[in-house]
Amino acid sequence: MYNDAAKSALIEAGRWVSDKGWVPATGGNFSIKTDTGFVVTASGHDKGYLAPEHFLELNQQGAICKGQGKPSAETALHLKLYQLQPSTECVLHTHSVAATVLSRFIKGDTLAIHGYEMQKSLRGISSHESTLTIAIFDNDQDIARLAEHVAKRHEQEPVIHGVLIRGHGLYAMGNSVAETRRHIEGLEFLFACELERIKLESSL
Ligand SMILES: CSC[C@@H](O)[C@@H](O)C(=O)COP(=O)(O)O
Ligand SMILES: [Zn+2]
Asked: How far is the CA of 126 from the centre of ligand 2 (A)?
């Protein structure tokens, strides 16, 4: 994808994800692979009101080629996700209430979901009877270290649709912008269902 088209796609994704309430304040960051490297959001902007000047163009190693401001504080995690799954074209990071709370409620390192038809919104899943697993990582302000934890976990169990960062949010990935958006929407629906189920079961 060309840089300008990549920025337009991310501006549109930002409006959509903001309308959903999944990137409050200046939370979230987005990237897309381009023919020369990556485009990533600049740090500290409201992702619902992005404009072309709110992006940096990076080369394949993550060095800045063009753009103003600082690249997202979490750029290293985006780059790691592209490295781990070379078919990944787009990474969108969101801060929904459901992803934030559920990732705190689950004490272990995995969210396991089964029994929901909506699991089929995720690439490669064809039945509600399968178990979808999403890796959960403790939040860390050292993004390079967090990215290394994700890489280590990927060696044991490939990261396919995304990862949860505890008390922080979701990193979703896909082979196109449309697929990444679908993965976010499907996962957010599943997180919300799980939260409702946990609440109901704990009040019985
Ligand atoms: C609202 S604070 C959120 C940030 O700390 C961070 O997690 C985030 O998602 C946005 O960081 P940014 O540097 O703007 O890409
Ligand atoms: Zn974040």
From this structure: 30
